[in-house]
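Preliminary data (for renewal application), zinc ion complex.
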Amino acid sequence: MVKFPEVYYDNEWIIKHRGIKNPVDPFRPYAYVREKERSRTGEIIETGTIFLTNRECPFKCLMCDLWKNTMNEKVAEGIIPGQIEWGIRRMEGIRQLKLYNSGNFFDKQAIPENDYAEIIGLIKDFDTVVIENHPRLIDDRCLKLDDSLNAELEVAIGLETVHPEVLHRLNKQMDLDDFEKAVRFLSLNGIRTRAFILLRPPFLTEYEGIAWAKRSIEYAFSVGVECCVIIPTRPGNGALDKLMKEGYFEYPLISSLEEVLEYGVRLHAGRVFADLWDLDIFSRCRNCFLPRKGRLQGINLSQVISPEIMCSCSRQVL
Ligand code: SF4
Ligand SMILES: [Zn+2]
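Predicted structure:
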């Protein structure tokens, strides 16, 4: 049964339960990753993700841990283009670039507007550029960016969940209408959307977490999303650790991620990926972790369901 506490967790509560931030260098991205990803057309392309060191996001979502690698102050002009250039130089040959700034690309407090021209110069010739943005910050600026790129622009948006009460309690400050409006606006203007969907956000059981992740994928495709990424909800941001202690959150099993990925891929409505970051924490069994990880990687790339991993842990009671 869905179980909700009496209180709603607001910015103040979420910030109060945080730990300290990691030291970051504004002249460098705090991470960059090179990997392969399946493109919309079915090609496997070299992809680079640059995790920009930036000012903290003004939204304070209950499950977000991206604040850990952010700064309290706005970055000076020229800093973000410098980080992008630094990252690109280390990932020669990539065709798709993801620019994730622990927040929203079009947040004026995050990326100075005077930097846009230089950023465009650096990214315009990739095949695809992916940025992240909150639905409430999606407007004509996305169209202008799209017009300035030879690359196809894709906007990643956190849908999180279509469970209305859970979404409200995530403190995301958006509802499904905001999400749908943003996706339809982008689609109408020929810009693709990638939706981030949480597997088992707080307040749900394992079974409910699976069911609502599946419903969220269906919903995302129904409003025009092209690609869904399933993110297993992980503790570590303070707020979720507190909720775990209080019995309102438990992180999902790797087998649930497999189930939701399979479901999404079988819809044949668009690409569906499992997020594999920190995957080991979702495994309760040493025997099958690596085969399961390999299976998820394979399905991400092929979008074809491979045979299930058989292990004695598969029959765990949810
Ligand atoms: S909008 Fe995104 S980056 Fe900002 S707090 Fe929410 S999840 Fe984190
Ligand atoms: Zn096992």
